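This part of the workshop introduces the protein records we will be handling. Getting from the letters to the C-alpha cells is the skill we practise here. An example says more than a description, so a record of this kind follows:
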Amino acid sequence: MLAIGTNEIVWAAVGYLSGSIPFGLLLSKAAGLGDVRKIGSGNIGATNVLRTGSKKLAAATLLLDMLKGLLPVLLARWLGGEQLAVVAGAGAFAGHVFPLWLRFRGGKGVATYIGVLFGIWWVLGLAFIGLWLLTAFTMRISSLSALTAAALMPFVSALSGRPDLVNWLFVFGVAIFFTHRENLVRLINGTEPRIDLGKRNK
C-alpha cells in the first residue's frame, strides 16, 4: 500500500502543476484560432485541437501534453525513486483533467498518460501507442482507441515482467474510462464521431 508522506505530497503537487498547463488552449489562442473549448468536444486536448483544422497545432499539443506527463515522472524517479515517479505521474494526469486555472475543466488525459507511461517504463508507452494506432486504423474512433489501450495496459505490464505496476495501471485505466464517460455513451449509441484526416493544415 502507498504510504502518504511529505515526499508523496510534494511530488503529487509538482506533477499536478506540470499537468495543469493547458497547452491546447494556449497554442490555439496563440495561433489565432480562438478558444478551443468552444469547438467540438470543448476539451483542451490534441484531438479537439485537431478540429480547428490544424494538424501541426494538434501534433504540437500532443507532444507538449506528453512531455508534461513525462518530465515530472523522470525528475521524481531521479530524485526519489520509483514510487514517487508514479505519484508524480498521477499528479500530472490529475492536473490535466482538473486544472485549477480552468476551473478544474481540462482534457481527458490520454496524451499526458502516454507521457507518464514512457516515464514509468518506456515499454508501456510504446505498447499504448501501438495498441492505439492498431485500433484507430481499424475503427477510426479516437476514444475507442484510447479506451482499448488503457484497458490492456495492466495485462501488458503483467505479461512483460512488471507485475508491480499492474495495480497502478488499473487505477489509471479506470480514470481514463471516467474521463471518457460521455464518449462511452456515444459509443454505445453509435454516435461517436470518427477520426477525420481530410482537413488541411493551417
User: Anything to note?
Assistant: DSSP finds ten helices and no strands in the chain. The radius of gyration is 16 Å. Residues 6-189 form one domain. The first helix runs from residue 6 to 19.
